[in-house]
Write a structure and sequence with these properties.
Family: Belongs to the NAD(P)-dependent epimerase/dehydratase family.
Structural class: alpha/beta
CATH superfamily of the largest domain: NAD(P)-binding Rossmann-like Domain
Largest sheet: 7 strands, parallel
Shape: globular
CATH architecture of the largest domain: 3-Layer(aba) Sandwich
Number of helices: 9
Helix content: 25-40%
Radius of gyration: 19 Å
Mean pLDDT: 96
Strand order of the largest sheet: 3-2-1-4-5-6-11
Number of strands: 14
Number of domains: 2
Low-confidence stretches: none
Protein name: NAD-dependent epimerase/dehydratase
CATH class of the largest domain: Alpha Beta
């Protein structure tokens, strides 16, 4: 079976690519390398077809030919940027998704797996948040992901495709190059004496380790293909962790003793306008229907990632020993 992964040189995409190659699939990766890195694919680069292309204006549409499934992960992942530069997220998240769906329709692709986000819910009124909760994003990033879900579902119903949209929580692991763990470690690498933290530290969110994420993605895909139709699943963890706890883990891993300053950007302590203050997804549906469940808690996922990234980034006194 031939599968195509957009954004396959990205964080989640590279792990998904490795897993599918190891499972014997014929894999095509499309990435414009704006944030992706071919180094992430070094272990499998000679066993895939890599296409460097910008899906905002595809130059090699025939890469979609004879493909059974598209895993659409290509997107700009920076929620903060979406607030200050909304056009970027329209182009890279909404326009790209439309182009991917159009090419999938043109070449008769039957299965779409769409990487959505917990940010589609905005400030959820129900915690843990189920999939039938109202979609009320508070960032352009969340709005773009919600728009992508609607388009994927509509294309699936109109053109006879199967579609599964996965509303990911905060995904962490080695190779991660955005988000709170990466940002804090980079700040410590620049100045081990002082650490500025966005928000008041009370923000609470759920984190999922990358291997759990890949397992959920593949199991949901298999379920959608087997049963046909349009499916939406939350992909997150049972628990959550607050920013102050994350800061303590980062400081412990680094071995530094910085002066910590919290910088809330809003009266209620958010890190930036559009930042969701508290997020915990209900994963009851994917557990019940698909049979997936996470193996690692949010805290364990943070700790494991912090150790891996500190080595990758060269941050920490203990690295000198």
């Amino acid at each position: 079976m031939r599968v195509l992964i957009t954004g396959g040189a990205g964080f989640i995409g590279s792990f998904l690519t490795e897993k599918l190659v190891e499972s014997g699939f014929d894999v095509i990766v499309i990435d414009n390398l704006s944030s992706g890195d071919l180094g992430r694919l070094s272990d499998v680069i000679d066993r895939i077809r890599f296409v460097k292309d910008d899906l905002k204006n595809p130059s090699d549409p025939e890469a979609f030919q004879n493909v059974d499934t598209v895993f659409h992960l290509a997107a700009n992942p920076e929620v903060r940027i979406s607030v200050t530069e909304p056009r970027t997220h329209f182009d890279e998240n909404i326009l790209v998704t439309f182009n991917v769906l159009e090419l999938s329709r043109k070449y008769g692709i039957k299965n779409i797996v769409y990487a959505s986000s917990s940010t589609v819910y905005g400030d959820a009124r129900v915690i843990p948040t189920p999939e039938d909760h109202p979609i009320q994003p508070i960032s352009i990033y969340g709005a773009a992901k919600a728009a992508g879900e609607v388009m994927c579902g509509t294309y699936a119903r109109l053109y006879g495709m199967n579609c599964v949209a996965l509303r990911y929580a905060n995904i962490v692991g080695p190779r991660l190059r955005h988000g709170v763990i990466y940002d804090l470690l980079m700040k410590l690498r620049k100045n081990p004496e002082e650490l500025e933290v966005l928000g008041d530290g009370t923000q609470e969110k759920s984190y999922l380790y990358i291997t759990d994420t890949i397992n959920a993605t593949l199991m949901a895909w298999e379920y959608a293909v087997k049963n046909s139709g349009v499916y939406v699943y939350n992909v997150g963890n049972w628990d959550l962790i607050n920013v102050r706890e994350i800061v303590n883990i980062i400081v412990k891993v680094s071995g530094f003793n910085p002066r910590i300053t919290y910088r809330p950007a809003t009266p209620d302590g958010r890190g930036w306008p559009g930042d969701v203050k508290r997020m915990l997804l209900s994963i009851d549906k994917i557990v019940r229907e698909v049979g997936w469940k996470p193996n690692m808690s949010s805290k364990d996922a943070i700790e494991t990632t912090a150790k891996a990234l500190s080595q990758e980034l060269g941050v920490g006194e203990w690295l000198k020993s």
